[in-house]
Fold each of these.
Amino acid sequence: MVDIAVIGAGLAGLVCARQLQQAGYRVVVVEKSRGLGGRLATRRLQNSCADHGVRYLENQGELSQQLIKILSDRHILNPWTATVHQMQDSRLQPMPTSPRYTASAGITAVAKFLAADLEVWRGQRVVAIAPTANRWELQLEPAADEPIPNLRSRALVITIPAPQAVVLIEPLASAVSTSFLEKLRSVEFEPCLSAIATYPTVYQQEPAVEAVTFPQNSELTWLSVESSKRPAIARAL
């Protein structure tokens, strides 16, 4: 039995769990993957790395500004490019933007920092939720060679993507409103592919253009030179 169970160790789940723990609650984060961060994803290859989920963090309000300051004060985040180019009519046009922050060690470093003092159960998929008297009971997917006991908590926070959350919440129709379920079902995600390409160190040089957007292209949206985020590491596109 714990005070609060948080399902999902993405940015939202880790920030929420950290704040709850600082408020004095015993919190357990349950994550289906072996890694942390969800879309805070970094792929390591050839002595370099590339962010293939969240590309950067930027100020989107008071709370995100506070998080960026904490991470910057601890030298996890650093300011990145102040200019993103747009491809318009086959021409590159510089578009000054608000500050964007990246991590020299890869964006997953943000998740590792946030999870440092948390109890995180990795590789544990929640397959069902059952409300009982004054608590929630989480059924975890059993491993091939050992059963996993259910996790009980007095409160529950679900931070996984809406299509995944629907599967867990729909059986609780008697405990949640119909309008909430309808809103949850209406959330859709567009598919996206991330491609990572590397090039020989002989071509290493400071890039003239660090990031490009393609507003006129329905298939290609973003291209960045990942090594511009971490110049001390071997370059990757």
Amino acid sequence: MMDDFKEFLELPGTPQEQEWLKEQLETLSVRESYALAAVSMGYPPEKAADAIKSILSLPDCTLHPAGSYEDLGKYSQKGAASLPEDVLPYVDFGHIGQEFEDEHPGLFIGGYYVEYPKKAAEPAYSGKNAFLPEDSDWSVKLKLASPAVPEGVWLRLPGYDGKMAEDADEVVLALDELRVKSLEDCTLLEARCILPEAGDLTKQYSSITDLVRDGDNLGYVLAEQGQGKAHWLDKFAAALEYEDCRTLKFALDIAQNLHCYEWVPRDGVKEFAANNLRTYHVPEELIQSGNINLGDYGKDLLDTSGYMEASGETGYLIREYTAQQQTQGDITMQ
């Protein structure tokens, strides 16, 4: 897909901006390519910073399966299928499609209408000396090939369109580009996971469909982050390290069972120590007096209790073993 946008790499910009663009374009998915083609035609980038902003807007683009105003009109009118067949020749679906375009600006690319994202109040990247954004809103990227397209195309997960993984726009567009009917007709050339602990995905799955489902599920897990629980991501990363995770399935298993782990964030060490003292009925006045080094005491207490310090020094974690959990086998060790 990079060849379709190689002119982006010739736009004026800093070396860091050019390297960021190169990395993004190398794994641009089919859906992203459609969206980027439309965005760059509607808002031609004049410098590398503009191209970066265009790429950052791609998740907010909406693709509608329509190659003409008439198709768009029919697509936008969900009730058109219930109209009497004899009235269809008298319905101006082309005009309805143009009205849809007025309300939802976009551009036709191939057999799709790409609806531009609503303009954000603050630009995602301001250029100049701003930090380049991290590409972190994905879970798994797969490069799939077919006999018709042996060089392969990229698929980016999760789909984020509310559909089952196999029916997501990302998958449908990739299959169309590869000219195959199902994921099982594809060959997996390369796989990347945002979690290094997930290991080599190409050796873990005999079914590409299963890999796509798990990659999609991981994406939603990471986006939800335990329904907004504090320190969820730090706890998850520590649990992966604690269990020496090496597969995607095990990472998903751990994510679904984080309640099996006790987590003490770095800024909670003193409170952990104070709570321990309270179990011994140490007077609160003494605990809060500043005469006890709660920080060092807490670290020693965590160490002797078997907690593991996360490699990023974000906190401490231990797996809770209860009779019920051991009996039920909440986590399948791998």
